[in-house]
Design brief:
By secondary structure, the protein is an alpha/beta fold. The chain contains 9 helices and 7 strands, in the order βαβαββαααααβαβαβ. α1 (18-27) links the parallel β1 (3-4) and β2 (32-35). Bound molecules: adenosine monophosphate and manganese (II) ion (MN) (3 copies). One manganese (II) ion binds at residues 6, 8, 63, 247.
Length: 276
């Protein structure tokens, strides 16, 4: 078994269309994959069809943008019913917020001397579910920045000229939404929220108290070698199950290494125990 429970397609800010992503994952040796686009499950039907052809087991997934204490967090929902009406309403409402936020980001970039960002980001995305990744790609294409990293650092990161304070649904509501659709919830990349260790402890306590199930412990290339131990310890301290996922977005960031994430420490209980 080779499991990856976090990745993106063109439905959000990934480079590969859902069916291309599935073929690529199968070639990389992945047996169980969750497609977890930002705030959208629109890629699941095409992914399911490609998965049955490729002999890969697809798990329904979504990476939800949510708010905890004024900060934006990412919660991965897994193995839910994609036809659940309340979940679909929730995601449509976040998608509307994304459209409004994209217009605001574009307005702020124009004020900073960079006009037409929204039109540019729409061309990059090919749809109107715009993420900051699409703005970053446009900033590079238009020659305003040398790479994505610089685009975030100069314009899109918190406190920069193109930053907009997001009003995502609360973490509590987002967790409840996945739970009532029959799924489980994973707090994604716990070390990437730019917070002190004390705040991280508060975040994890709040996540567990609100019914969150698991912590993303193994994340492949996006982790430094020691991060997995730190995440494992956080899962133990807060009584959370453990998940693993590459957060794959593009081929430049290969499926590393060849579709094999570092194994979870053996004392942790995998979040997939009931559905894989
Ligand atoms: P959004 O959900 O629209 O705020 O966009 C968040 C996405 O932007 C993340 O999922 C990452 O894919 C990407 N991102 C955030 N920060 C950075 C960064 N510093 N460098 C590159 N990509 C980033
Ligand atoms: Mn992303
Ligand atoms: Mn994320
Ligand atoms: Mn992600």
């Amino acid at each position: 078994m080779n499991i990856d429970l976090h990745c993106h397609s063109t439905v959000s800010d990934g480079q590969l269309a859902p069916e291309q992503l599935i073929r690529h994952a199968a070639e990389a040796g992945i047996s169980h994959l969750a497609l977890t686009d930002h705030d959208s499950i629109d890629g699941l039907p095409a992914a399911a069809q490609a998965a049955s052809q490729a002999g890969l087991h697809l798990i329904s997934g979504v990476e939800m943008s949510c708010d905890w204490d004024g900060r934006s967090l990412h919660v991965v929902g897994l193995n839910f019913d994609p036809d659940n009406p309340a979940l679909r309403r929730h995601l449509h409402s976040v998608q509307q917020q994304r459209r409004e936020r994209a217009a605001q980001i574009s307005h702020k970039l124009a004020q900073a001397g960079l006009p037409d960002a929204l039109a540019g980001a729409r061309v990059v995305a090919g749809h109107d579910q715009i993420t900051r990744t699409h703005f970053a790609a446009w900033l590079v294409q238009a020659g305003h920045c040398k790479d994505t990293k610089q685009a975030f650092k100069r314009y899109l990161a918190a406190g920069k000229p193109g930053a907009v304070k997001s009003q995502w649904p609360s973490m509590t509501d987002s967790l409840a939404c996945i739970a009532q659709a029959g799924g489980v919830t994973v707090l994604a990349h716990p070390l990437r929220y730019n917070m002190t260790a004390a705040w991280r402890q508060r975040m994890l306590a709040a996540f567990a108290a609100a019914g969150g199930h698991a912590l993303e412990v193994s994340a492949g290339a996006s982790q430094k070698p020691d991060d997995i131990h730190q995440c494992a310890q956080l899962a133990r301290e807060h009584g959370l199950l453990a998940s693993q996922g590459s957060d794959f977005h593009s081929l430049e960031q290969r499926w590393i290494p060849y579709g094999r994430l570092a194994p979870l420490p053996s004392d942790l209980i995998p979040v997939w125990q009931h559905f894989v």
